[in-house]
UniProtKB/TrEMBL annotation:
Keyword NAD: no
Pfam family, one: Ras
Species in which this protein is naturally found: Serendipita indica (strain DSM 11827)
Keyword Transmembrane: no
Protein name per the record: Uncharacterized protein
Length: 185
């Protein structure tokens, strides 16, 4: 069976590539901006099986709309979108909900969305109420946090992605995802 695809979405600098590198068992590089890392298949143990997932990073650009076709290629055949915002950047949450998700959903209407607060060991400035509001609006199936710097929560994020890939119910058109309970972990 082909690997399920998970895509890392979000604003410039929120830490998508660092999260992808951690998922691939790589080291954290401070002050290092990665445009987009090469897609790679990783294996994640979950529910007594091994889920093979293709981790796909999405390159950002100062001109998001001009990058549209490039994004479309990255999104192709995605099963899960990891919607990233940084916990110390309120604007990144707003853009996640207002720009990245609508664009992704346009190309992958049946994919599940998981909202992830990155850089979780930094001081939080994004109010949890706003996180919940966005999570509900985008119908995220999970709301998680992680830090690529300390590796905290990375395994859990991968586990939730794997679980979602294994247990996703078939959804009808117009009902993009089944609405799971949204718990902040
Ligand atoms: N403190 C802290 N810094 C982080 C963390 N994750 C990423 N960073 C830093 O944030 C910056 C951006 O990380 P990237 O992974 O390149 O961000 P990106 O979302 O891929 O950015 P673009 O590809 O430009 O869109 C880098 O300087 C990282 O070192 C984290 O968990 N904690
Ligand atoms: Mg990057």
């Amino acid at each position: 069976m082909a690997a399920h695809k998970v895509v890392l979405l979000g604003c410039r600098g929120v830490g998508k590539s660092c999260l992808g590198i951690r998922a691939m068992d790589g080291p954290f590089q401070p002050n290092w901006f990665y445009e987009a890392i090469e897609p790679r298949i990783i294996k994640v143990p979950c529910l007594n099986s091994i889920v093979e997932m293709l981790v796909q990073d999405v390159p950002t650009s100062s001109d998001y709309n001009a990058a549209h076709p490039m994004h479309a290629v990255s999104y192709l055949d995605s099963c899960v979108g990891l919607v990233c915002y940084a916990v110390d950047d309120t604007l990144s949450l707003k853009w996640a909900g207002d720009f990245w998700v609508p664009q992704f959903v346009h190309f992958c209407p049946n994919a599940s969305l998981i909202l992830v607060g990155t850089k979780s060991v930094l001081e939080r400035t994004v109010p949890m109420a706003e996180v919940r509001e966005v999570a509900e609006r985008i119908k995220a199936v999970h709301v998680l946090e992680c830090s690529s710097k300390t590796n905290e929560g990375i395994e859990l994020v991968l586990e939730f992605v794997a679980k979602e890939m294994l247990t996703r119910k078939h959804v009808h058109e117009g009902q993009r995802r089944f609405k799971g309970s949204c718990v902040v972990v």
